[in-house]
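Morning. Coffee machine broken again, so started the prediction first thing and wrote up yesterday's gels while waiting. Chain of 125 residues, entered below exactly as on the submission form.
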Amino acid sequence: MLKHQAEAADGVFHALADANRRAIVDHLTRGPATVSELARLLGVTVAATVQHLRVLQASELVRSEKAGRVRTCQIDPSGLRRAEEWLRLRRTTWERRLDRLGDVLGESADERRPPPTNTTEETRS
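Came back before lunch.
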C-alpha cells in the first residue's frame, strides 16, 4: 500500500511540475472551463492543451466531459487529496523528529547554562 501511495503521489507531483499544468489547475479551481478557453489562457494550441490535460487526468487532478464538440474540464479533488495525504505523513514524521531534536538541544543547553542567581537577595545585602 505504501508503494501505491508513493506512486500515486509521484504522478500528482509530476503533473504539477509543469507551469502550464499548474496554471490549468489554478484556473479550474475557480470553475469549469473548456479546452479552448484553457488553450487561450496558456497561449498554446488546443492540441498542446489536450496533452497537458491527459497528464492531469491520468493523475486524477482534472476530469472532463464532452458534450457535442465541446470538452469541459473541471478539478478532480482526489489527486490533490493524495498529494496532501503524502505531505501530511511526511510532515508528521519530520515534526516528531524536530521535536525530539529540540528536546535534545534543550537538554544540552540546560546542561551548559549556569544555575540562576538570585539577584534580589544580593541587592538587599
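The CA atoms of residues 107 and 113 lie 10 Å apart. Going to sketch it on the whiteboard this afternoon.
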